[in-house]
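Hi R.,

Here's the chain you asked about this morning:
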Amino acid sequence: MGFLQPVEPDVDADELRRGDRPVQMRILSENFLSRGFGTPDVVYVGYLVKIALFVLGGALFAMSTPGVDGLLDVGQWWALPVVWQKVVLWCILFEITGLGCGFGPLNLRFLPPLGSFLYWLRPGTIRLPPWSGRVPFTSGSRRGIADVVLYVALLVSLVVALLSPTAPGTGQLPWQKVAVVLVVLGLVGLRDQTIFLAARAEVYGAIAVTFLLPFPDSMVVAKFVLLCIWWGAAISKVNVHFPSVVQAMEANSPLWRTKRVKHLFTRSYPEDLRPSALSKLLAHGGTVIEFFVPLVLICSGGGTVTTVAAIVMILFHLHIIVTIPMGTPLEWNVFMIFAVLVLFVNHADLGVSDLAHPVVLLIPAVSFLFVILGNLFPRRISFLFGMRYYAGNWDTSVWCLSPTGEQKLTDNTIRAAMLPHRQLEKIYGGEDQARVTRLTGFAFRAIHTHGRAHAALLPRLVGDRPGVNYVELDGETAAGVLLGWNFGDGHLHSEQLVAALQDRCNFEPGDLRVLVLDAQPIHRQTQAYRLLDAATGEFERGTVRVADMVNRQPWAADMPVQVAGGGRDC
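And here is the predicted structure, written out as tokens:
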């Protein structure tokens, strides 16, 4: 790979331009599985620098605590309870300023590389209340002064807590200051679920709740929250989608520099581009690790067994970091390594028997309830609270904008960035030059199972308007531009966002069409879809079989569809 320049795709541009979608997906899927996105190494270096700044920021906030001194004397203070608490709060601050998940060019964020505060400090931008109309004072979709004030209050409350000394005689932060952070975060979430999810409340928020408890209860309960996170992720990966995630992640990893290694993750390149036995082994092996090694950490109580288990989990998260995956949950994995060292190594001796009030285990129990409900009812529970991280079983959408629809959206929405394809055109110097990169994004989706369903459903979405020159957008990247943030949660770019745009843009029928594909419920072998027109509403719904998605090649467009109220359509 080049350091400053991307690796040029090894494709015939004329063939790509002439080809229909299956031809394009075959060409670009083959290229992706040989070269990845071709990201220049300087981008990866930038992400590693960001990790270093994240670590430095946490250390500086820790040293703002009286009695915590010396950046080079980290061994004297890194595992103190107050340092642990400040690192968690620093993670929330880092995420809600847009520097964490969803940052930068690996998420098609170029100009600028983040959204977040550029939107959430600006009245008139779109907000998405989780229960609009059912919770007083939360209806509507336009950000007002009150929303800006709440966001600023969240930032200020975090900084105040991060700069606070310990409460006398506790070694922990004053619980009142943590409570203020949690209350303001809850109020912000009722007005705009986007900010609440961006704070990674299912991880850092749940852990911060433990800070309301005295030591050692706070540490013991935090251990079980971590166990819930690992088990939640493992449960969601017990599926047939996950090997495709591993295949795509490894093919795009900067670790592997040759085609020969990258092809090991594909069954038989280029004839059969489904995941290889190696991809399946890594996927299911990682799931086994997430199930059993954290249980060892909880139960072992120190010694050699704990040390070995801790090393395994550190290597597990370190591997994710060095692959620099799409979505870039890098700092989160750094935090998980820190959590292993603080909770399970330094405080290995603390366990359930040390709890003064065992009832506090209800905190991780509630988190785990969301995991169960999220896997049973993925349409109702966020991808994040269901902890379906990197499981391949995601809620996704594809947006199709007509030229008129794009103009209306551009003219009637307040944003800090252009639509993703326009950013690419500006960077590459024109539509033709940006085409390969834009289509490679859809090839990335096609390598995952849901991309095969997208290919089968797109003709149904816009097939009645053959003369319209639609631009196709990935719903996740569209939401990132319109909301200021997105990290894999399809709920943020489905019906609610479409309705908010219709209120602003007054689309005519056909201006904006959206395909929404729900994740697979863990107890079913189908995934539900809906086809929407922003002006007229839903016009078709049905299901696709997971087996049909898994057994097809990335370029397939012949997958059967079961239309609700009708027969099976091939």
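One quick note: The mean pLDDT is 94.

Cheers,
M.
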